[in-house]
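okkk here we go again. third time trying to get the nicotinamide-adenine-dinucleotide bound version out, last two times i messed up the smiles copy paste (missing a bracket lol). double checked this time i swear
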Amino acid sequence: MRLEGKAAIVTGAARGLGASIAADLVREGARVMLCDILVEQGQAVAREIGEGAVFRALDVTKADQWAEAVTAAEARLGTVDILVNNAAMIEQVPYDDVTEELFRAIFEVNALGTFLGMKAVVPAMRRAGAGSIVNISSTAGIHSSGGLAYTGSKFAITGLTKTGAHMLGPERIRINSVHPGWMRTPQTEAAPLDWVASLQPLRAVMDTREVAKLVSFLASDDASMITGSAYVIDAGALLMGARDIVDRMHEHMA
Ligand SMILES: NC(=O)c1ccc[n+]([C@@H]2O[C@H](COP(=O)([O-])OP(=O)(O)OC[C@H]3O[C@@H](n4cnc5c(N)ncnc54)[C@H](O)[C@@H]3O)[C@@H](O)[C@H]2O)c1
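finally!!
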């Protein structure tokens, strides 16, 4: 129960990774406000998690909704000690199909939404005397592996994390990014994940609960000296690349 006495906001918590993160934070003793634009699904997930979980509708691209959500979280949960910026829009289309409109939509949710969340919770974290923000990026935010706009937005999250961590460190507000590789979520339902697993060094595709455990650790005081760091959790996928070319070269030469 490493999060006993703490209160958290998790965005994009109505399904997928966000729902797993909310459940793990509650399992570790936190009180959690799950936020999403999917209201019925979010309410159902909060009910399923049970005591310690409440749901609130929030569109992360709207600053006024963020202000109201933080006020509501302080009223219902007491403080805001933890924020997990997880909500995202995913895009994987060819170069010519990335329009200005699509680019703006992806950046609004993934980059602006993360920025607005970081801005909104800091006054509450100052009142609490400390805080931990975990921004969900992707392996695409370390190495190019997603769509053009998606990858750009996930690199933006890495930059927001490191600069924010530097600026807020003196106030005991820590910010780290988590960079998952392939996970089984509604977003990846159509992807051939068993085939992906057969290629990855650990011969597996992650379950969201494995990523949630890393988030709970970073949110907790066990990580009190960790800030500005980028944590990759990807079943070894980023080890591929140059190494993969060498292996294929040996196969080709055999
Ligand atoms: N699934 C993967 O393999 C994978 C890999 C790397 C990184 N990620 C990252 O993990 C996170 C979760 O991904 P997922 O696969 O669970 O996705 P998902 O689409 O299942 O969940 C995303 C959630 O964000 C919510 N959301 C979207 N726009 C929103 C908005 N404007 N305001 C509030 N909520 C909004 C959605 O309603 C949804 O519930 C994302 O940041 C994603 O980029 C996922």
